[in-house]
Every structure is written in C-alpha cells, then in structure tokens.
Amino acid sequence: MKKMTSAEVRATFLNYFKEHGHSIEPSQSLVPVNDPTLLWINSGVATMKKYFDGSVVPENPRMTSSQKSIRTNDIENVGKTARHHTMFEMMGNFSIGDYFRKEAIAFAFEMLTNEKYFDFPKEKLYVTYYPDDKDTYNRWIEVGLEENHLVPIEDNFWEIGAGPSGPDTEIFFDRGEKYDPENIGLRLLAEDIENDRYIEIYNIVLSQFNADPSVPRSEYKELPQKNIDTGMGLERMVCIIQGGRTNFDTDLFLPIIHEIEKLSGKTYNPDGENMSFKVIADHIRSLSFAIGDGALPGNEGRGYVLRRLLRRAVMHGKKLGIQGKFLAQLVPVVGKIMQDYYPEVLEKADYIEKIIDREEETFNRTIDAGSKLLDELLADLKNQAQTIVPGADIFRLYDTYGFPVELTEELAEDEGFAIDHVGFEAEMKAQQERARAAVVKGGSMGAQNETLQAIEVASTFLYTEKKSKAKLLVAIKDDESQDKVTGEAQLVFDVTPFYAEMGGQVADHGVIKNQAGEIVAKVTDVQHAPHGQNLHHVEIVKEMQVGETYLLEIDEDRRSAVVKNHTATHLLHAALHNIVGTHALQAGSLNEVDFLRFDFTHFAQVTKEELAAIEREVNEKIWENISVETRTDLTVEQAKEMGAAALFGEKYGKDVRVVIIGDYSVELCGGTHTATTSEIGLFKIVKEEGIGSGVRRIIALTGKKAYEAFKNDEAILSDVAAAVKAPQFSQVVTKITNLQDELKNLQKENEIFAEKLAASQSDEVFKNVQTVDTTSFIASQVNVSDVNGLRNLADIWKQKELSDVLVLVAKIDEKVNLLVASKVAAVKAGALVKELAPFIDGRGGGKPDLAMAGGSNAAGISELLANVAEKLS
C-alpha cells in the first residue's frame, strides 16, 4: 500500500477516472443552489441530481468529483469518535446511462488494488452487498475477490422516496486485530456493530429502479437510464493510507492541531481522548469553507449551524486554557492544507477571519449575559429551596442563549447545586429528532421522464431575433410524442426566438402563427429539455402538425422589460462590490417583467447611505450610455482571466457567453440584454431586507416602473407637505421636526401633570393599609389617564414606608391595567400579578419587585381586590 499525502490521494482518485473517460467536475458551493430540500450540500451526488433524474443530460455521461460536504445532525459525536466530521470531502465517480455494474465494480477493484494507484492488498478488502443482488455478488467473484470476503446485508439498498433507487455494495478495509481486541471478526460487519477494524472506504450505488412507495420493492420498474453513484470519503482513505489511529491523525488535521497546541500550551496525544483538539480542528474547517461559500453565522437554518459550531469550538478552546479570541488565527492553516484543490479559502482568508472574529467576540459577550441569567435562575431556585437545576432550564440556556452546558454545570456546582442530566439529555434528544426530521438525506430526486430524455433533435435559440419562421420537430402531449396536437402541449422547433428560463431570467411569452398569419397557439412558458433544447409550453387553439413551418413571435414589450431588469442586475452586482464589498456574493436572482430581485451574502443590513450610493452609481452608469457587448468566442478560462464573474449556481460549458459593460462589469451570462445601458432608463431600489442568515435581498425597478415609483413617492411627499403646511418640499423636514419638538414639550407637561395628579391621590389611596399574617399591603382602584399614572403612584409608595406590598388597578379607556409592587423577598410581584390577572381576563409578568398586567374585564376589578389577601396568605 502506497504512502500518500491527502492531496495525492485526491489526485490519484480523480486522475484514475479521468484516464477512464470521466470529466472532472469542480467541487460546488456548500450552499445548495435551487434545491430547497437541502440545508447543505451533503454528498457528491447532491450536486448531480438533475442528471440522475434525467431533467438535464450532461455533456459527458462519465463524471468524477471530489465534493466538499457538510452534515451536522450528529454534531455531538464530533471529537468523540474516530471518524465523525461536520465537513468532509466525498470523492465519487458517476455514470449517467453509460456503464453500470460490470464496469463500476471493475473500476473500484482495479483502482484500489493496482500498484499504479492505491495498491491495497486484496486480502484486506471486504465487501457487503444486497442479498437479492446476485449479479453484484457474481461480479465481485469475477474480478478476483474471495467468496469469504463477501457479506450480504439487507440494508444495502439505496432509496429516498419516489425516483431513482437501487442496491448498493460497500467496500471495507480491514485494519487488523489490533482494532478488534475481542477478535469478533466479520460479525462486526454482518451485524453492523460499531467498530474501528473494518472501515468503509467506498460505496457503489447501482441506480437501476424507479422507486414507487405504493408497491413492494420487488415490483419496482427498471429505469430507462441506469446510473452509477459512488462515494469515497477522503478523510477515511487518508487515515488508512497514512496509518492514523483516527481521521484526525493525518495531514488533513494535524497542522491545525499543532497550531492549537501552540495557542493552548497543551500537548495532543494521539492515544488519548483529545476531544477538544478534534472538535476545534473539525469545526474550524467547516466554518472556513462555509463562510467562504457565502454562509454566515445567525439564528436560523445554516446560520444557526455555523453559530453552534463556532460556540462549541470556542468552549473547547476555553477547556484547553486558551484565553481570548483565537479561532480566526486557524483559518490560514486550513487554507494552506487545502490550497492544492481549494485555493479560495486562502484567497478569502481576510473576510473569513473577519466574520469569525466578530462572531467570537459576540459570543464572549453572550457568555457574560448567560452568566447573569444563570445567576438569576440559581437565586430563584434557592428561594424555592431547590437543590437541582432542572434539565429544561439547562437546555433553555444552551439552546436559546448559546450558554454551554459544561459552564452551567461548573457554575451551578460552585453554588452547591446538582444538575438534572437526564432531563437535559431528554430535551437534547427531542431537539435532535426535530432536526433529523427536517433533513432530507441527499435530497429527493424526481422520476426520470423517458419521453423528454428521448428528444435529441437539434434546436437553436436566436438571441437577437424577436420573431422567426421555425419548423416544428417534436410535439408532446400527455407525456407522449404526437404527430398532431391540440390543447396543452410541449413543442420543440428547429430554431426559436423564445428565451427559456435560466440564470434568473424568466421565459419569453408570445404567440405562434400559421402560414396564413392566424394565431394557432399561445406560448405560456419555455423551459430547457434534458438535452438543452428550448421546450415551449403552449395552449394550442388550432391543431398543429409536426413537420410544418410556423411563425414564432415573442411578446416584445415583455422581453424589453425583462432585459432592462437583467442588465440592471449586472450593474447592481458591480455596484454592490464597489460599495458593500467583494464578499457580497450573488445568492440568487430573478429578472421579472415588473421588477428585479437580487440576493447576496452580507453580514449586516445594508445602510440607508450605502443603498443611496448603490442606486446613484447604477444610475450614473445608465446615464453614461455604455455599450453592452456580448462575446461568444471565449472559453471559461479566458473569460475568468478577463475577470468575469460566474453567476451563482450556473454551470458553464467549454464555450461561454460573456457580457461586458464597458470597464465596469464583466460576467458570464446566458441571458438577453439591452444594447446600451441608457435603454434601462432609470433604476430605483424599493426594498432591502434579510431573507435568511447572512443573506440579504434587494428589490429594484427599472424604466417605466421606476419612474412610476418615484412619482408615487412624490405624491406621498406632497400629501405630507400639505398636512404639515409646508409650502415647499424642502421645508417638510423642518416642519416635522418642529412638530416633534412641540409633541415632546406637551408630553413633558403631561408627565408633570400626571405626577401632580398622583401626588394628590396618594394620600387617599395609601391610607387603607391591611395585613395578612405578617405581610402588610395596600390594594386599591385608582383613576389615572395612562399606565404612567400607576408607575408614578408606585414611585411615591416606594419612597415611603407604607406597606410591604402594593396592588393598584385602573380602568383606562376600554382596558384594565394592574400593577403589583413588593419590598419583601417573601412576595414576588411577578408571581402575584400572574395570580391576580385572571380576575380581569388578563395576563402579565415582571420582576420580583415590580410587575404589570393588562386585561379586558373591568367587572372583575372588585373581585380582584377582594382576593389580594387570600393570594398573600
């Protein structure tokens, strides 16, 4: 077995399959594109689903990749086990309707055992297979695997709901009896016992059936196009090849661990527990890659995952004795380890470090805030003579406030409390089950459409034409090809001026006419067929026939509005980079008829001043009347050398379209555009908002819609000017400021009046002091204009030694307000107000010394006051 670096392992895998006709696909962003079923890209096949379900036909049916992936439903196990990671790299080879079982198994066996490649001893390899899959069993025997190295496993069948599915066969490496002290042997595999001896290194999924949940597995139909999907974890392969005790004892993690040793002054021991070293090393990789791909820490979704990873890493740093912020210092180490295949981590290191540093600083403040909440909780438990901190409270501090369990336990024990570990674990388990239920493993795939996949005729989109004659080549109705069609159908022509929806630009609409000029169909949508042809979704009003020539006409007004918005999107993208920063990566766009929508990654709300600057810059480029040039003579590499920005989520072929707007914007883009920027007319931002953790959205208008928006704002301003009696718009702000000052003065006068009114009432209100047991109290209905009147009376009461407890209730307009104040520890105002509020059909709460409630039942005031004594007894 050869010794290799991690980079050499990856290269050996990819190059092997390149030698066997596979195209090497680049690793995609960890943030999924156009796939709501996934929180993260969690496997190599996750980026290939459109090929597996047949919605897109790849240029090369043989592909290979090494895909960065994140899985976080078992975060707690990272650091505890030898092979759990949040981020990992999944190497794989894929066949879309090309080779199948015979070749896939031969490729795997040769790559693993041939001395040119990994040179694994055959006797060290064991294979599991689906018991009913005799073909796979026989194939392994044919390539030279010993019969006693084959283990049938009932679970070796891959399926996720309806769609492609099939048996799988897994390859394991035997690390020897050293990792099997009880000498259990192959039962570890056969009975699926967790172990460190037999390590799964390669899984081959034989995707040959269309799964149908309504029938037994034995009745699944064969796929019209059979596929191969494999996965080989880089971290596991490197561990075996480099002889590491765990995945962490390899060149993928050890440089990070050595840097943590320097920061902590502690020593990593490969034979020890070392959980904190492993947690930090794993989590900083995930953070570095995810933030580099545009995800940001936050309170939900992907953001919550990153925040949790960062906080877990910080707390393990504290366990190692690291003082202050430290995680950002590890980012360059991650970048250097991975730069052979992922140079972008080092390229974006400054930005990644900035985000991590800011988040770590925020968490340090959170720890301070959590300490105060814990202090209050412990004080409350002491007052109740409790000695155990409930698991639900521990979990609330952990889940809601990010306060670490270990710190809760340490501080609580210092105060003499025990910890309800069972209750906490129950809460944690419930949360994990909710998280797992929300995750679609691998993402669902649609069933293959054999009719659409069979369309292989040539069809050309005419970028610059608004109408054209075209021959009808294919007509599909009710999922079957037809020679003649009426009603709703899907059509393919030899040429078409109709744009198919792509890259955020919506499809063209329009009409189809016959030779006599009669409208025979309305085009309501255009999408791409699996082989890339423009597939027209139509409503046919007069029968159409394959082979006939028709006149295709797009709705020019619709196209004109859309191209204005699309070209403005390019200008907006460039302006964002200039004003907000180059980290503002595109995270989706929509160029509609009436508006444009642009999503981008950014760690804060775009300020009012920044939005104004962006809007101004885009309009300046419009006024400059810059030519919009489209080049089609460049390769992807040449375009990127020019500085072309690849739009989010798009896959580009060898030859690309590059849209160049002077020296201001260069982007790879397959859409349609204006000839010059001045055709856009006008640009106006109407909204900026957050749509997810670390993702912002700008909605803007162009042309006529922008003008109408400006006129609408002008009309509103005119109404405001009239309302404040400002003869000119320029005087509106001054007028409003003066009115605000007048209002503040009146409010101050009102507060003074309220205080005087409270003082005048206080003697009458406070004279009736009652006592229950040893607690004195005042309970009274008062007349005040607002809740401040109640607070003023409470302030007067506090200044005087009149009673232990105060209960005031007032009917203010249609509502009833209740105030409870307490000067003694035995009576908590917050608890008492909750007991009294139901009498007025209300609810409320507050602190131990002051609490308030609001209700709607004025008829209950008398009963409330009558029950104060009972509630205090």
From TrEMBL:
Origin superkingdom: Bacteria
Coarse class of the protein's main subcellular location: cytoplasm
Cofactor comment text: Binds 1 zinc ion per subunit.
Pfam families listed in its UniProt record: DHHA1, tRNA-synt_2c, tRNA_SAD
KW rRNA-binding (keyword) present: no
SUPFAM superfamilies attached to this UniProt entry: Class II aaRS and biotin synthetases, Putative anticodon-binding domain of alanyl-tRNA synthetase (AlaRS), ThrRS/AlaRS common domain, Translation proteins
Record GO terms (molecular function): alanine-tRNA ligase activity
Domain Alanyl-transfer RNA synthetases family profile: 4-712
Keywords: Aminoacyl-tRNA synthetase, ATP-binding, Coiled coil, Cytoplasm, Ligase, Metal-binding, Nucleotide-binding, Protein biosynthesis, RNA-binding, tRNA-binding, Zinc
Subcellular location as annotated: Cytoplasm
InterPro entries: aa-tRNA-synth_II/BPL/LPL (IPR045864), Ala-tRNA-lgiase_IIc (IPR002318), Ala-tRNA-ligase_IIc_anticod-bd (IPR018162), Ala-tRNA-synth_IIc_core (IPR018165), Ala-tRNA-synth_IIc_N (IPR018164), Ala-tRNA_ligase (IPR050058), Ala_tRNA_ligase_euk/bac (IPR023033), DHHA1_dom (IPR003156)
Gene3D superfamilies: 2.40.30.130, 3.10.310.40, 3.30.54.20, 6.10.250.550, Bira Bifunctional Protein, Domain 2, Threonyl-trna Synthetase, Chain A, domain 2
Cofactor(s) it depends on: Zn(2+)
Residue numbers binding Zn(2+): H566, H570, C669, H673
Coiled-coil residues: 729-763
Known catalytic reactions: tRNA(Ala) + L-alanine + ATP = L-alanyl-tRNA(Ala) + AMP + diphosphate
Function recorded in the entry: Catalyzes the attachment of alanine to tRNA(Ala) in a two-step reaction: alanine is first activated by ATP to form Ala-AMP and then transferred to the acceptor end of tRNA(Ala). Also edits incorrectly charged Ser-tRNA(Ala) and Gly-tRNA(Ala) via its editing domain.
PANTHER family for this protein: ALANINE--TRNA LIGASE, CYTOPLASMIC, ALANYL-TRNA SYNTHETASE
The family this protein is said to belong to: Belongs to the class-II aminoacyl-tRNA synthetase family.
Annotated HAMAP family: Ala_tRNA_synth_B
Notes on the domains: Consists of three domains; the N-terminal catalytic domain, the editing domain and the C-terminal C-Ala domain. The editing domain removes incorrectly charged amino acids, while the C-Ala domain, along with tRNA(Ala), serves as a bridge to cooperatively bring together the editing and aminoacylation centers thus stimulating deacylation of misacylated tRNAs.
Protein name: Alanine--tRNA ligase
Species, as recorded: Lactococcus nasutitermitis
Encoding gene per record: alaS
